[in-house]
Amino acid sequence: MDIPSGFDPAGFTPGFLDHGGPYYLGPVADGVRVVGLLICPHHINYQDAAHGGVISTFADVALSHAVYDAERPRLAPSTVTLTVNYLAAAKLGDWLEARVRIDRLGGRTAYTSGGIWRGPEQIATMSGVFSFRRP
After folding, report:
1. With contact defined as beta carbons under 8 Å apart, do 127 and 62 qualify?
2. How many domains does the chain have?
3. pTM of the predicted model as reported, rounded to 2 decimal places
4. Is residue 1 part of a domain?
């Protein structure tokens, strides 16, 4: 599958995220940038589905990116809590999109929620709390 129009490589800092992605940044929806992920062979588990850790990492990446991108200068969020509910499996070649809401952005804490979608089907719900310090 090709990467959908409007999505570009995220170019996140090298390291752990290189192993979970590659991730893509897409259009802004409801004030927050959509994050994309194409399910590749290195994401697949013994059941021929994306490993749950791939989905939870994707959720963490998307939720934290929303906080990071919420202000200028950018914030540097750290995950406090992350909850992922799995609704359906992602398979090899699936294009996934994470759509996020910032429910509350306080002085040092952000509350976020959203979902991971494969086309019109939601395959996971997610929520997270992030701490940060403003520069």
Report:
1. no
2. 1
3. 0.96
4. no
